[in-house]
Amino acid sequence: MEFTKSLIKGKLVKRYKRFFADIKLNKKIITAHCPNTGSMMGLTNTNNDVWISKSDNPNRKLKFTLEIIKVKNNLVGVNTHLANKIVHHGLTHNLIDEFKKCDQIKPEVFFNKETRFDFLVNKKNQKIFLEVKNVTLFRSDKIAEFPDAITSRGSKHLKTLIDAIKKGYKSYIVFLVQIQGMKYFKIANDIDNEYYQNYLNAKKAGVNFLAYRCKISPKEIRIEKKLKIID
After folding, report:
1. How many CA atoms are closer than 13 Å to the CA of 119, on its beta-carbon side?
2. Among the listed residues 74, 88, 85, the one whose alpha carbon sits nearest the alpha carbon of residue 43
C-alpha cells in the first residue's frame, strides 16, 4: 500500500488525549491526529523521529495525521486505520501464503447483528472469516506482541470466531506487525491475561492465527514476511 503523497518528517513532542500528537516541524509545533486507540507503549518518547501525512480536505480540523514513528532504529506504523488496507493489498497481491489465489474477497462483513469481521474470503468453496489486529508493541529486539492494553473487544472477536467455526466457516486472525526487524510474535499475556486465555481456547477450537511483518518506509507499507508465533 503506497502513500498517495510523500510523508513529512518531524520530531515527536508528545501524544495526549489518545488522538492528539504534537509534532515539531523545523521550528514550528503542529498538532496531528493520532489514529491509534491503543496505549502505544514504548513508542511515544519525546524527540522520536516521526512521519506525518497532510490532508487537503478543507473540512478537516487537523490537517496532519501521524503515520510512522522511529523507535530503536525500527520504523513502526501506528495508523491502525491503514491495517485493513494493508491486508487487503496483501490478499489481492498474493502476499499472504495461506490466502493465495482467493476466489472472492469481501471487506467488512457481518457475521451476526453484533459482530462484523474485517474480511470474508472464499477459497475453493470454503468461506473464511478473517479478522485483522494491528501490532505496534515490542519490548525486545526481535519479538512483537499484542495487545498493548486490555482489549475486551479483542476477546469478544475470539469468542465469535469460535461461533463461526461451529456454523461451518473457517476462522483466521492475522496479527499485522507494523514493526521493522521483528522475527517472532507472541501474545502479551502479562498485559491482558484474559485475552491470552481466550486465545488459547480459540486455538484449541480451531481458530487459525497468523503473524505477518510489514515492510515500512515513508513511501509505502506492505506485507513482507511471515513470523513465527511463540506461546
Report:
1. 27
2. 74
H runs (alpha helix) in the chain:
83-92, 152-166, 193-205
What are 176's strand-pairing partners?
134, 212
Residue 141: per-residue pLDDT = 87
Nearest to 64 by CA among 26, 38, 37, 25: 25
**For residue 194, what is the DSSP state?**
H
Q: Is the pTM of this model over 0.85?
A: yes
Q: Give yes or no for a contact between 167 and 208, defined as CB atoms under 8 angstroms apart.
A: no
Q: Are 187 and 73 in contact (CB under 8 A)?
A: no
- Structural domains of the chain sorted by starting position, each given as residue range(s) with its CATH number in brackets: 8-71 (2.40.50.580), 80-229 (3.40.1350.60)
Q: Among residues 228, 226, 230, which one has the least CA distance to residue 199?
A: 230
- Strand-pair category, 137-138 with 126-135: unpaired
Mean pLDDT, rounded, of the chain: 96
Query: In this structure, are residues 87 and 118 in contact, taking their beta carbons and an 8 Å threshold?
Result: yes
Per-residue buried b or exposed e for 153-178, using 16+ beta carbons within 10 Å of the residue's own CB: ebbebbebbbebbeeebbbbbbbbbb
**Bridge partners, residue 105, by sequence:** 121
Per-residue pLDDT at 136: 98
The residue assigned the cell 495525521 is 65
